[in-house]
Amino acid sequence: MNCPDISSRESITRGEATSRRLTKKLRLGPHPSMIVGGHGGVAPTASPAINHIIHNPPSAAPSVFATPNLFLPKEDPRRDALLAIGDSKARAKLPPPVKRPYEKNYHLGEAEIAEMRTLRAENPNKWTRGKLAEEFGTSRFFAGMVAETTAARKEEMQGRLATIKSRWGKIRTNARFERTRRRAGWGGADGQ
Amino acid sequence: MKRIRCSSSLCDQFLSSSRQIVPRPRITVTAKGPLLTSHTRALSTTPVRSQYYEKPINPYEPAPGEPLPRARNPLNSAKLAALHARLSLHPSYPIQTLARALIDQSADPIRFYNNSSLAYLGNSLLGYYGAEHFMCTYPRLPTLVLKSAMAAFVGPRPLAAIGREWGVETAFEPTPDVDAGLLQFKRLPPGTTVKGHLRPARSEGVPEEEAMANFVRATFAGVYLHEGVAASRQFFRQHVMSRKLDVDQLFNFVQPTRELSRLCAREGFTPPVARLISETGRMSRSPVFIVGVYSGQECLGQGHGASMDEARIRAAVNALKGWYLYSPANPVDLPSKMDVDPAASFAPAMIDVGEVIV
Asked: Residue ranges of the RNase III domain (chain B) (predicted)?
């Protein structure tokens, strides 16, 4: 499965003196993909001598039933055929990543993790997950995962959150509820 | 009233003329030789004439104190003949079996006269055919999705829908004088809870959906018993598999990005990276982002959304669906193919290692 690029067209601006000229200017030729032999904007020199099919489907999200090459099992006959096509293509330039990629360094051992837990248990109000992450050079997610906070602090924080939520009006409460519901649907529950 | 016994040999006669008066010769029953009851006789291949019984001989016959079967005559029902013809059942499928399939356990508690045993067999067959279809066509389907797909094909609701599409009507009350071509079951009083432990006993009544589903199961079992394996496979294909189900809509991932990372680690692929393929209207009210999730050079899935996070998560979901919805290239051989012809060529189905545990 190859993700296609969406080519941008030149923007058309209105700027002719008469409607006849404007109409003529706005008149668009067929898209290159609709012209036989006209890929890449090259105009065909002559009509093809034999019957032909123009395969130009409208843009749509790829079907999930088309299994990516990588996911095909080794014994599947389609795998080799698709890999051969993929190899013949030039290595396309990949689009930019959404988040900056980073290397995981796995620098924390058992001793450091034990220390994180001790610090957290001793003074959970000082050693929050953000502080721990900063101190040990790791992510907040990892800090929260290995060194969970105490039950008392959890309860206190939840109480504080409940107080904040109780101050919300009808509109904000509803908006937050809807947002949570929408987010939950991204996993496939909303049927898109 | 005398107990009326009908046989499969009358079926052909009945199909040709439903109003024909059938002679009922009195046959003297000898003490020896197993005599089949109506239900077993209907299932047997040897033609037997209809007859009266003076006393029960078969050990499976109800005891003398038990009530007699309801006096419904399948041969007098035009609805039954129409249903038989509408389902294109073979003449070897007796009208009596179809009539019995329409009698629910709540209408007649004696298992020799109701469809409970047929429905049980039919349910097993439907489960077998449904499971083999999904497990061979989509060998990587997670268990939960497989279960919901099975429920969507051979669960009570679709089966009841099939029964209604066949044009089967229900009797208001299962009295002995109703038409034998109507679905006979005892209705629950309105407002009864039918789920959980509060559900009343079966003899108190059943929901219409359940009775209709049991009728379809029993009809299916009749096809298997009277017409054979090949016919039952065909019947399943025509009536059950012809229904459309979007299997890709049955998924719901809680942590799709994490699950995809686990999958790539398990299978030894390059860790997935989300990449922004295209976007429009970033600062507007309704932006659209298209994000693809890549493993090395390979695009595993694509998703779109009104935010980068949404598009990224949807891309991971689509990549996972691409993995789980893998289907072998050629039409797969189902194991039940060998039931029809044991000498046929058979390619074994793919068995996957299992779903990703997060």
From this structure: 80-228
User: Which residue on chain A is closest to B308 by alpha carbon?
Assistant: A98
Helix (H) or strand (E) holding A117: helix A110-122
Q: What is the pLDDT of residues B150-205, one digit of tens each?
A: 999 999 999 999 999 999 999 999 887 888 999 999 999 888 888 878 888 888 89
CB of B248 closer than 8 Å to CB of A64:
yes
CA–CA separation, B160 and B215 (whole Å): 8
Distance CA A112, CA A133 (A): 12
3-state class (DSSP) for residue B274: strand
Yes or no, beta carbons of B254 and A187 under 8 Å apart: yes
Token pair, residue B35, equals: 């005599």
Residues of A with CB under 8 A from a CB of B: 1-3, 5-6, 61-62, 64-73, 75-78, 86, 91-92, 94-99, 101, 186-189, 191-192
What's the pLDDT score for residue A28?
86
- Over residues A151-186, the pLDDT tens digits come to 999 999 999 999 999 999 999 999 999 999 999 999
Q: What does the domain layout of chain B look like in residue ranges?
A: 9-247, 251-324
Taking contacts as CB-CB distances below 8 angstroms, the residues of chain A near B294 are 94
Please give the CATH topology (third level) of the domain spanning B251-324.
Double Stranded RNA Binding Domain (3.30.160)
The confidence score (pLDDT) of residue A49 equals 60
pLDDT in tens, B119-145: 999 999 999 999 999 999 999 999 999
B9-247, what's its fold? Ribonuclease iii, N-terminal Endonuclease Domain; Chain A (1.10.1520)
